[in-house]
Amino acid sequence: MNTPNHITLIGAGLAGALLATLLARQGWQVDVYEKRGDPRLKGYAGGRSINLALAERGRHALRLAGADEAVMAQAVMMRGRMVHFLDGRTDLQRYGRDDSEVIWSVHRGELNVILLQIAEDAGAKLHFHRGLSAVDFDARIARFNDDRDDSTHEIVFDSLVGADGAGSALRAAMNQATDLGERTEFLGHSYKELEIPPAPDGGFSIEANALHIWPRGRYMCIALPNDERTFTVTLFLPNEGEPSFDSIRTGAQARTLFERDFADALPLIPQLERDFEHNPTGLLATLYLDRWHLDDRAVLLGDAAHAMVPFHGQGMNCAFEDCVALAERLLAGNDRAQAFADFQQQRLRSARAIQAMALENYLEMRDRVDNDDYLLQRALERELAERHPDRFMPRYAMVTFHRMPYEVAFERGQRQRELLVELTRGHDSLDSLDWSAVDAAVRERLTPLPADA
Ligand SMILES: Cc1cc2nc3c(=O)[nH]c(=O)nc-3n(C[C@H](O)[C@H](O)[C@H](O)COP(=O)(O)OP(=O)(O)OC[C@H]3O[C@@H](n4cnc5c(N)ncnc54)[C@H](O)[C@@H]3O)c2cc1C
């Protein structure tokens, strides 16, 4: 029997803090245990990417938690991709139809601080310096380590929710009690963060309202704006080959790569050598589990359940959607094991779909955004979205500006892509298309969009 309306969360990162708020605002007693210190006291300790793209799914969850206004006050709008070609030309490819369809760059540390404050204000109890180290599921005892003095602390729990990220300690403990069917697929590419400081006049040194991309085939750089007028640049490279993190190990080698492949970015990154040598290289992987819960005793969400590669900018957005879905199940007052099972049933297939789309997007970002076939397909995509707004919506829009289940966006996106490839085959401009045949194909092959769109 679970104590009604009490729950123990592991991890006070993005998902943990948001879920705590959603439940505490409805009168639940929520205890949250976090490995690190309180970032509101000592500043955010970093570790993962510095800034993140926030989209409609995430904003919807923030609105439900009463956090959207505070978060948006420090967010920077990104209207589209600013593609930087090798010859120095640039091209802004809008994400949506207008400024109602944009994404937002938010600072991970500031976001976490806002969410923690809102969670605490809502009544959640936050326990810092409590890293989960072991769980006795039979006795329902969780053991934590305090990194300041290496002391051990135990608590008795009803149910644990694992919001402790990709390296989840709760997941490891659950795996000892039952086989979760875990597998991790490494991408074979990693990333390194670099910084573009403000311009000498204190403003942004390149277009502020865009996500900048330098696509170079097997690798790329991106840059997202921060509200303090800097940009965080992320260099994605294969782990092996030429160039790769294996062949480029020193700051001087990084400079040579930038001189050749990212020449317009180089003068913007004065500390290139230092950043390259000093900042860690982050691994990229997709985590698949067949099961996310252990009866009524534990459930996983966010990166702990389904870490993904970052190329659709949806990991946090998806984690926030998980929080809303789990809170709904718990607040409905269902039997807890059933609530966890229903949550898994609903969200596992959604997570698989966005994981697949995130992997596909890497190829699109690094290799296709500057290619002629792709640009023609995108032009047709925009035209079809205008002509058939009830049936055709670019996949990026379905994922980013709407909240239809990811698996619906994935499946419709596949059918749309097939259409775009077929309809543009043998053409190098839209002028030569037979529009009555095009319209007939759309009506025949695509059902009307679901209501949420
Ligand atoms: C390079 C990069 C770029 C990204 N860009 C985007 C983007 O643009 N948009 C987007 O939506 N997503 C993006 N993501 C994904 C996003 O960062 C994650 O999906 C998101 O952080 C998941 O939130 P979470 O709360 O599940 O995990 P986390 O944010 O990782 O939080 C986990 C928390 O648990 C704590 N913890 C860990 N172990 C323990 C323990 N043993 N005991 C107690 N606490 C513990 C950690 O300290 C942390 O506070 C990106 C990821 C990367 C790597």
UniProtKB/TrEMBL annotation:
The enzyme's E.C. designation: 1.14.13.9
Segments forming domain FAD-binding: 8-351
Primary role: Catalyzes the hydroxylation of L-kynurenine (L-Kyn) to form 3-hydroxy-L-kynurenine (L-3OHKyn). Required for synthesis of quinolinic acid.
Cofactor(s) recorded in Swiss-Prot or TrEMBL: FAD
One Pfam family matching this protein: FAD_binding_3
Record gene name: kmo
Name of the featured protein: Kynurenine 3-monooxygenase
Keywords per UniProt: FAD, Flavoprotein, Monooxygenase, NADP, Oxidoreductase, Pyridine nucleotide biosynthesis
Pathway: Cofactor biosynthesis; NAD(+) biosynthesis; quinolinate from L-kynurenine: step 1/3
Catalysed transformations (reactions): L-kynurenine + NADPH + O2 + H(+) = 3-hydroxy-L-kynurenine + NADP(+) + H2O
Family stated for the protein in its record: Belongs to the aromatic-ring hydroxylase family. KMO subfamily.
Molecular-function annotations in GO: monooxygenase activity
Classification via InterPro entries: FAD-bd, FAD/NAD-bd_sf, Kynurenine_monooxygenase
Source organism: Lysobacter gummosus
